[in-house]
Specification:
It contains 15 helices and 22 strands. The protein has helices spanning 16-25, 40-44, 47-64, 66-69, 81-104, 160-163, 180-192, 211-223, 277-280, 316-331, 360-366, 381-386, 414-426, 431-435, 448-452; strands spanning 3-10, 30-34, 109-113, 116-118, 123-126, 129-138, 142-144, 172-176, 195-199, 227-229, 233-240, 243-249, 256-259, 261-264, 268-270, 303-305, 344-347, 353-357, 370-376, 392-398, 404-410, 456-457. Helix 1 (16-25) runs parallel beside helix 10 (316-331) and helix 3 runs antiparallel to helix 5. The chain binds flavin-adenine dinucleotide. Flavin-adenine dinucleotide binds at residues 10-15, 33-37, 40-42, 46-47, 50-51, 115-116, 139-142, 160, 181, 271, 275, 307-308, 314-317, 319, 348.
Length: 459
């Protein structure tokens, strides 16, 4: 006999717990299943641990720059990785515990620990028990991709999950992958005191951004002493007496980089292969992402997929937004859609990159008439006062409607300031609204009206 619920949620990532709370509040019964840690990637191995570690690295970096700001630190700034990790464990652990306690305290909510698998389109098996519901929500997230590099099984390597548990300082960390995760770990470990080499297969770092953004980020990390190797083809791994060698075919530089440790940061894979999706008849694309419509319903009525496993995001905010879309459709008859949202995210290097909307390359490809402006952070008062003048503010607008098409703010506060532009995009307001707004002095955001007065046809 199957145990019946109004809803079953698989996974406690960024969408599942809030959805469980909605069912609970509506007086409906819900079972939520987690096979590992409550809170999923963001809480345990993603955003929270990395941003906590980045904060430690930033503090060490500023301490080393003490003389610039007028203070002295007696002796060399040394990072105690055990204490850094303990701080991270405390902050991340608090969130993990908070999610579990929250779920266990919800009325009508049954929390089950174990691996869930579909048995049919209405039933899920967990710990040999069959659960049944009219509505099933999949929020299983993803994991670090393990690439099929030759030698991968002969050497130890870190991924994002194991890397956040490191409590020692690697002498030389070689990071394969020069995108968001690789760059954040790279700068962090350089600031902790490791030698760092980033090996990127593509022709530039963070390849989905505009070329000028990639170039600026490369200069920023190189200035801190990070070695960058681009166009690295045919990567293989091998053991060496003093560590691990990463071999590659490259037009420039040595064909091998040896380090004490290797971190693989080459993308994410959805956790959908061991879910029994075929038993429920749920369709995926060729990379294993669950196929969903604009309201996140799968091809099987009564089954939804939210978060990283549907391939429509890859961020905590996209997963949470998926929850809002599903909940508003189900509980409020508010027909929200995925296609209504505007792409936005940040790279949390120092300085950070805040992004919203289209890149300039995408705008040009679309063929629309656009205006653009780029303003260096070295001419932003607040950045000068803080001694953080790297980067630029870049905004593009539609020449006809005057609506903002996209922005990249690489600079101090860029991850926050970009929301001024993002919200104007949601409001479908012309950029002139921001131009006429009075902003607080001295902030980075106060420069947006001035920057927008310099728009020219996008070259
Ligand atoms: C290093 C790193 C840094 C990141 N930094 C940021 C950032 O700064 N900002 C940002 O927005 N995003 C960031 N992300 C991405 C973000 O963490 C994810 O996009 C987000 O956590 C996705 O959430 P989710 O809801 O899809 O699922 P997840 O958080 O991945 O959770 C899925 C849960 O489902 C469970 N599960 C899987 N299969 C089963 C099963 N069969 N049965 C039961 N349970 C199952 C898993 O154990 C897991 O707990 C980062 C990611 C990484 C790796």
């Amino acid at each position: 006999m199957a145990r019946h619920f109004d809803a079953i949620i698989i996974g406690t990532g960024q969408a599942g717990p809030s959805l469980a709370a909605r069912f609970s509040a509506a007086g409906q019964t819900v079972a939520i299943i987690e096979r590992q840690k409550f809170g999923g990637t963001c809480v345990n191995t993603g955003c929270i641990p990395t941003k906590t570690l980045i904060a430690s690295a930033h503090a060490a970096h500023l301490a080393r720059r003490g003389a610039e700001f007028g203070f002295a630190v007696n002796g060399e700034v040394r990072v105690d990785m055990k204490r850094v990790k303990a701080r991270k464990d405390e902050i991340s652990g608090r969130s993990n515990k908070g999610v579990e306690e929250w779920l266990r305290g919800l009325k009508n909510c049954t929390v089950i620990q174990g691996h869930a698998r579909f048995e049919s389109s209405r039933t899920v098996v967990v710990n040999d028990e069959v659960l049944e519901a009219d509505k099933i929500f999949i929020n299983v997230g993803g994991r670090a991709t393990i690439p099929a590099f030759p030698g991968i099984h002969d050497v130890p390597f870190f991924n994002n999950s194991s890397m956040v548990d490191v409590d020692f300082l690697p002498k030389h960390l070689v990071i394969v992958g020069g995108s968001y995760i690789g760059l954040e770990f790279g700068q962090m470990y350089r600031r902790f005191g490791s030698e760092v080499t980033i090996v990127e297969m593509g022709p530039r770092l963070i390849g989905r951004e505009d070329e000028d953004v990639s170039e600026a980020i490369r200069s920023i990390v190189e200035l801190e002493g990070i070695q960058v190797r681009l166009n690295a083809k045919c990567i293989s791994l091998a053991k060496r007496d003093n560590g691990i060698a990463v071999s590659m075919e490259c037009k420039e530089g040595s064909p091998e980089v040896s380090g004490s440790h290797v971190l693989l940061a080459v993308g994410r894979t959805p956790n959908t292969r061991d879910l029994g999706l075929d038993r429920a008849g749920i369709a995926t694309d060729e990379r294993g992402y669950i196929t969903v419509d604009d309201q996140l319903q799968t091809n099987v009525p009564g089954i939804w997929a939210l978060g990283d496993c549907n391939g429509h995001g890859g961020f905590t905010h996209t997963s949470y937004n998926d929850y809002e879309i599903v909940a508003d459709n189900l509980f409020n008859a508010d027909h929200r859609r995925v296609s209504d949202r505007i792409s936005t995210y940040a790279l949390f290097t120092d300085p950070p990159l805040g992004r919203c909307g289209m890149t300039d390359a995408e705008i040009k490809k679309s063929g629309r008439a656009a205006l653009g402006v780029k303003h260096p952070m070295s001419k932003v008062g607040r950045a000068i006062e803080k001694g953080e003048t790297q980067g630029f503010i870049k905004v593009s607008v539609d020449a006809e409607s005057k609506q903002i098409l996209g922005a990249a703010i690489l600079g101090t506060g860029g991850d926050e300031v970009v929301h001024v532009l993002l919200d104007a995009m949601y409001a479908k307001a012309p950029y002139t609204v921001i131009q006429r707004a009075m902003h607080i002095h001295p902030t980075v955001a106060e420069f947006l009206p001035t920057v927008l007065s310099k728009l020219k046809p996008l070259a």
